[in-house]
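Lecture 7 notes: from sequence to structure.

We start with a single chain of 485 residues. Read the sequence below before looking at the structure.
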Amino acid sequence: MVAGATWMIAARFAERLLGLCSTIVLARFLAPSDFGLVAMAMVFVAAADLLGAFGLDWALVRQRDLQTRHLNTAWTIRVILGLASFGALALIALPAADFYAEPRIAPMIIVLGLSLLVAAFENPGVVMFRREMNFTKEFQLRTAAKFFGAVVAVSVAVAFRSYWALLLGTLGGRAVSTLMSYAVHAHRPRFSLSARKELMSFSIWLWLSNILTFLRTRVVELLLGRLAGSRSLGLFTVAGELAQLASTELAAPIHRVLYSAYAAKGNVPASVGSVYLIAASAILTIALPVIAVTYLAAPHIIMLVLGPQWNDAVPVLQRLAIAGAFGIFSVGTVHVYWAINKARLETFVEVFWVLCLVTLAVALTPSRGVIGAADAVLISSAVVAPLNILLLRQYAGVSLRATLNRNWRTVGACLLMTGLVTQFIPVAPAASSAEAAMRIVTITVGGGAVYVATLLGLWWLIGKPNGPERDVLSLVQARLRGSPL
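Now the structure, written as tokens:
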């Protein structure tokens, strides 16, 4: 699992690094409003994509007696739904442009819809890599597709300085991913629906959850684009991308790997809960200080990565970074619910989350614009995190005491680090990119030293109990000795 998680984290960070590098270049050639235009189109594209959001890959990983007919059925369903999604987007392209009073949206939706259709033809055989914990191939597949997409986007941006760079980069990446899926796995799908009942009995719950996840992640963008315009939406979406680097981009790939282990232990919920608690605590130990550094260095990150024309994104990035800290407690719970055959719990959580977020967004966005939208995300994330902790206690045997015992030192060390950095290291906006880079290094090194010293000091003072400190140190020592993980 550790080896698999390493490859998945590497894949995720390779994707994000390529995305970050391309964003740095694109932000110099494109305006925030260009990013906002694409985000406007993506709201409708994501809605159409819900037609095929049954999570069939997860159903295939979970299927205990996986056969060729299951792979062929999953592929057939995806192709049919991909065609339906493309057709739906062709129909709503003009009404969507009228909704935003922005005629450029219509052709953008068509191109992005084509990228969905191309992705629907991906070879389902690649799911076998995940079942076999062979994440090297998935790393190669995802990284190559992202690299090609980034090259296309940057090339178009440099040559034409147009928002079409973002669209063509997306289409190019999807095309390469689909072509490579047939190159790396020998399975050749055929049209079949023979296993539809077996797959859909599980996937229907994932579909409902994906609809709710769409509402949670896109309703704010819909409101913001309508009420505040493309520039505010561009600030929000790009700040969200940067905020995710510090939170879900670390946690999500690890839990993606762990789902294979969860599924094997699904008949014993307490065993699944035990694995989750160990993994979630280790993730928090690593991710929380990164989130704290992101919050503290937000003005300098924006200056260095995006440039001074994006300074209005600083408070948005800070709020979304804090929201990501709460999101760590929620990002992996869905895999636990799936594994213990309680997928309806995820649906319940998403319903609650959507209601909370929509209420806050409707109340705050009209008067406060992009800051109100970010506040809505932050408050709703803070409310949902305790709910997931309680559900894990009830259905997977993850006790509140064990959760607190494993995580209080991490939280305390981060709070002390934040207080000291705020007190002694300047956090005011830098005057140049070079100064911004220096301040980021100072905050990272100084804050990191305080965090590590505090965390290990507290752990040593209370007798070195079992916890994330011991887990992380054991893995590091094993790797340094060259011992098997």
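Residues 343-396 form the longest helix (54 residues). Keep this in mind for problem set 3.
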